[in-house]
Amino acid sequence: MKKNWSIFWHIFFWVSIISYFVYLTLDNSKISTKELVVIFGVFSAINIGLFYLNYLYLIPKFLDKKKYRNYAFALTICIIVFALLKYGLATQFKEIVLLHGGKLTPFWTYIISSALTNVFFLFLSTALKFGVDWFLNERVRNDLENQRLAAELSFLKSQVNPHFLFNSLNSIYSLAYQKSDAAPEAILKLSEIMRYMLYESNDGKVDLAKELQYLQNYIDLQKIRFGDKAFIDFKITGEVGNQKIVPLLLIAFIENAFKHGVANDPSIPIRLMINLDGVNLHFYIENKKHMNNRDIESGVGLSNVQRRLQLLYPGRYKLDIQDRQDTYTCELSLVL
């Protein structure tokens, strides 16, 4: 299909060029339209032949292989031979082509004029060839870059806290061992989380409502894991409509808060606020740091999400992380 379109545009280009020159000559010519079309058809065929000789043969054979001397020599021969060919044909239409004001056009004048025309069509074909090659190379480069980014994103996504499953299963095992009534609810929450991570998040973007429900399920599971010793103040303001978001983008911030923050003190709960204003999302989380975690790096989780933001939301986000002695805050503004 693409090849057919390429042929169409080549034909359209030549028909347009020939029609334009016929139109310009027709107004100032005393010969019939039929004769003019025949003459232009013959000489246009020569120019087209020269154009594609360079485009399809000379450039791939010499220029693409950096055989510049051979290419220059071949062009010189083509310019001369095609100029002589045009003059030979012009003598067959002497009264129409060579006579101007009752005088015959001198041989060298016609040869030089034809040579310049040949140079123009050779330049045109070379420019087109370079333009097409650049476009194709750029498309291949973009395809490779997209494949590289897709592979990197896939790798980053596969890193999204794999130990979370093992921690959750251990907690559920402990609940089941104690015959806790919370075990079935924990299993249900975990199944919903895993279903989302394995199936829903395979798409490039998901409904924001589903991502927020995933965050809520994660928080609920943490509360079940820690019993009455997990306190988090989670608020969502604004209208949740049909906004889309890259999946599993915000969870790292919440995981980090539970991992390194103080969640068992009701006076200083983890504070999580999400505000929505159309396609603008504002995410804020704050937690008190454990005494023994004050000098611990946040790990690869946050580096992961920062890299994903760079790849998926370039120029559309602002991330501000404040790692103070006693508190840790993260603020993200994102254009969905």
Automatic annotation (TrEMBL):
Superkingdom of the organism of origin: Bacteria
Record keywords, A-Z: Kinase, Membrane, Transferase, Transmembrane, Transmembrane helix
Boundaries of every Signal transduction histidine kinase internal region domain copy: 151-229
Transmembrane segments: 7-26, 38-59, 71-90, 110-132
UniProt keyword annotation of Protease present: no
Record carries keyword Repressor: no
GO molecular function, one term: phosphorelay sensor kinase activity
GO annotation, cellular component aspect: membrane
Pfam family, one: His_kinase
Name listed for the protein in its UniProt record: Histidine kinase
